[in-house]
């Protein structure tokens, strides 16, 4: 049911609506509007002080009120949403801080592992270098023997093994011939044989006036270290042992 109001209770918009319904002007302030409506009531022989106006709800006012309520609700919802967003943002910041701390710890761990790996690699490389040095020293200080492997020189020729008199001359001669079989010059062969002698075998060179004579060198080596010479040495040693007086031991 629409409320009833007196002339003095009407609002400005209600006064204007009543005047508009009566076909009167709606301009002016509230007092002007009240006076204009009062005159119209008097002309209609109605008492302006007791006349009750049926006030219908104003659609615009109703919509404005509804809009105001809606805006209030929206503002309240915005406030709640902002509060929730703040809480969520605070939680996210806390999680991000924790994640950054864990990430920093992982990075420090990785750095430590890298340093340890580098130290181990350096230690291994140092150990390898020390082993190489030791092997090089052993190879440098190791005496050469007649069984030394053949090596190729830059000229493509093979270097014959060394001879120190500790092995059979006939065996060494075969190895030497295999190394120098493609050499055409007898002087080159003589030089190679001279450079291959070691120890007591090299002392034989002092008795040879011409060390470039390959045939003379071979003959001298045959006489000194050949099989016939060794047999003679063995016979002398055996004869010497037989001539030694036997010792008698008292029982």
UniProtKB/TrEMBL annotation:
SMART domains membership: SAP
Record-linked InterPro entries: SAP_dom (IPR003034), SAP_dom_sf (IPR036361)
Residues annotated as signal peptide: none
Pfam families (UniProt xref): SAP
Record domain SAP: where: 7-41
Descriptive protein name: Uncharacterized protein LOC129924094
Organism of origin: Biomphalaria glabrata
Record lineage: Eukaryota, Metazoa, Spiralia, Lophotrochozoa, Mollusca
Gene that specifies this protein: LOC129924094
């Amino acid at each position: 049911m629409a409320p009833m109001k007196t002339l003095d209770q009407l609002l400005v918009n209600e006064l204007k609506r009543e005047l508009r319904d009566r076909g009167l002007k709606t301009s002016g302030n509230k007092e002007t509007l009240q006076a204009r409506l009062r005159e119209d009531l008097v002309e209609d022989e109605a008492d302006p002080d007791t006349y009750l106006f049926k006030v219908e709800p104003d659609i615009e006012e109703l919509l404005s009120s509804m809009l105001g309520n809606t805006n209030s609700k929206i503002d309240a919802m915005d406030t709640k949403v902002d509060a929730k967003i703040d809480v969520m943002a605070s939680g996210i910041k806390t999680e991000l801080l924790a994640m950054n701390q864990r990430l920093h710890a992982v990075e420090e761990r990785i750095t430590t592992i890298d340093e340890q790996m580098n130290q181990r690699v350096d230690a291994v490389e140092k150990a390898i270098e020390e082993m190489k040095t030791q092997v090089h020293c052993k190879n440098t200080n190791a005496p050469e023997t007649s069984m030394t492997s053949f090596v190729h020189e830059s000229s493509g020729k093979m270097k014959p093994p060394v001879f120190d008199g500790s092995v059979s001359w006939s065996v060494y001669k075969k190895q030497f011939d295999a190394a120098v079989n493609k050499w055409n010059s007898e002087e080159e062969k003589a030089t190679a044989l001279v450079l291959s002698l070691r120890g007591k075998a090299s002392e034989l060179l002092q008795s040879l006036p011409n060390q470039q004579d390959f045939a003379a060198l071979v003959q001298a080596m045959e006489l000194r270290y050949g099989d016939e010479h060794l047999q003679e040495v063995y016979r002398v040693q055996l004869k010497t042992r037989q001539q030694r007086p036997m010792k008698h031991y008292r029982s």
